[in-house]
Amino acid sequence: QVQLVESGGGLVQAGGSLRLSCAASGIIFRLNTMGWYRQAPGKQREYVAAITIGGTTTYTDSVKGRFTISRDNAKKTVYLQMNNLEPEDTAVYYCNANRAPDYWGKGTLVTVSS
């Protein structure tokens, strides 16, 4: 059974930082491209960042230079380091595995106050 468990969210002031984690089970983690997505109130879920099995990273334009995605295959965990947070980053953050695209965790809430 595929499980994705996100953690690390919280309330932070604009300009602050948070590090999100997503622990995966039920998948061959090292063979999956892992991605982070977010859903702000009243909006659709959107792509944030991804990291391939080879470590290549991609980001949506709005987070480039502020967010860093990384992975630890031994721990089956993907991380999202978020710096210089902005109120527009407020959302529930989810991770996803490309070989199990229908599986989503409960997400972790990030709230950035101005």
Quick summary:
By secondary structure, this protein is an all-beta fold.
Write structural notes for this entry.
0% of the residues lie in helices and 50% in strands. The chain contains no helices and ten strands. It has 114 residues and is mainly beta. A hairpin with a 6-residue loop joins strand 4 (34-39) and strand 5.
- The poorly predicted ranges are none
- The secondary-structure element order is EEEEEEEEEE
Q: Give the termini separation.
A: 40 Å
Largest sheet: 6 strands, mixed
Topology overview:
Blueprint: E1 3-7, E2 10-13, E3 18-25, E4 34-39, E5 46-51, E6 57-59, E7 67-72, E8 77-82, E9 91-97, E10 108-113
Parallel strand pairs: 2-10
Antiparallel strand pairs: 1-3, 3-8, 4-5, 4-9, 5-6, 7-8, 9-10
List keywords for this structure.
mainly beta, six-stranded mixed beta sheet, globular
